[in-house]
Amino acid sequence: MGLRRDAGRLGAAMFAPALLYIVALVGTPLVLAFLYSVGNVKVGSVGYEFVGLDNFISVLQSPTFRGALLHSFLFTVGAQLIVIISANILALALVDRFRGRGLVRFFILLPWVAPISLGAIGWKWILDSIYSVINWVLVQLHLVEPFDAPMWLGEGALAMLSVIMVHAWRMLPFSTVILLAGLTAIPKDIPEAAAVDGAGFWRTHFQITIPMMTPIINVAVLFGVVFTFTDMTVVYILTRGGPYNSTQVLPSLAFFTGILGGDLAEGAAISVFLVPILVVIAWLMLRLARRAEVV
Question: C-alpha 196: how far from its chain's center?
Fold first, then answer.
């Protein structure tokens, strides 16, 4: 009994730092966000006034919020489609040994390892309306006129496409590593047996490899959706939500409203809208993963 009691105390002591971390850095801000969302709180204000659902009603009536909600889904779905398709291709290319594979893996991981602020600033120069190297290449190839080159960050549709592509570039290494781990875990005798039976590459990939990797793909998509839906770094550095709020997403709108605009209550209300959306997405993805494991 004494050993069991000591083991229980040791387990609790080892678990306590993680619990303290969650409470201090996750739980406390989340509770404050809920409190601010139902109060009248401004930057520099003292005291607290309960206003109920007034902030949520005000947010829902705002066309900017509705646009940001739509942009958030477009941003997330577009980026994740690009990431998952590209990560599958890269994982297939990197699963077999070849000369220089380690160097290729290193370069693929660079966007994830490097600070996102540096990468986004680099992309801002690449997509600049005057100094864009992409536009220079298009002009040299005579695909566009010198003074009629695309304004990647100055037009609504192109700006949204740009932030989606840059964020996909950022998330691609993470998903590639996850899918590569899942791909290497598949027993080699299964695709070899399929090849003996006459199955080609595409049939083996779509009827054997992908179904066996479905739980891993669901995990990659789940993490990618959570990271993308809650990310504002790329949008903030590249466009700051412009032009004319055409790239504004919920996290950036909450930051501009609550921090830069000084309306902490309304900014918190916008942030709180992220919670039920992400909870539903996580529940659906985990349910799909559980079904795939059962099958």
Answer: 40
19 within domain boundaries: no
- Looking at residue 159, its pLDDT comes to 94
Mean pLDDT of 105-113: 81
Write down the mean pLDDT value for the chain.
84
Preceding peptide of 211 cis, ω within 30°: no
Q: What is the pLDDT of residue 293?
A: 56
| Phi, psi values for residue 39, rounded to 5° | -130, 175
Is 43 a member of any domain? Answer: no
Asked if the model's pLDDT at residue 7 lies above 70, the reply is no
CATH for 220: 1.10.3720.10
pLDDT tens digit string along 30-51? 888 888 888 888 887 777 888 8
What's the number of domains the chain is made of? 1
Give the domain range for residue 233. 62-255+269-294
172 φψ region: left (φ > 0), alpha (ψ -120 to 50), beta (else): alpha
